[in-house]
Amino acid sequence: MKILYILIITILMLFFCSIQGYAQPKECPVLSELDKTSLKDKKGVIKALNTLIPKTYGTGIDDFPDIYTKWD
Q: Could you give the C-alpha distances from 46 to 7, 40, 62, 71, in angstroms and in order?
């Protein structure tokens, strides 16, 4: 009988106690806290973005495989 109660509680927790996660921050960053960049930093910024964008957004979805390969 205890196993049945544990099973019911576990199933209820799985379906009704979900945790929300966000891929993006809830608020925009404060501009004064961001690092300043210049044209001299262009290569480093592009290299960082080429690393961060696929990690953050993935490499695409089935219907749009190249969705995040082009950006400004």
A: 51, 11, 26, 10
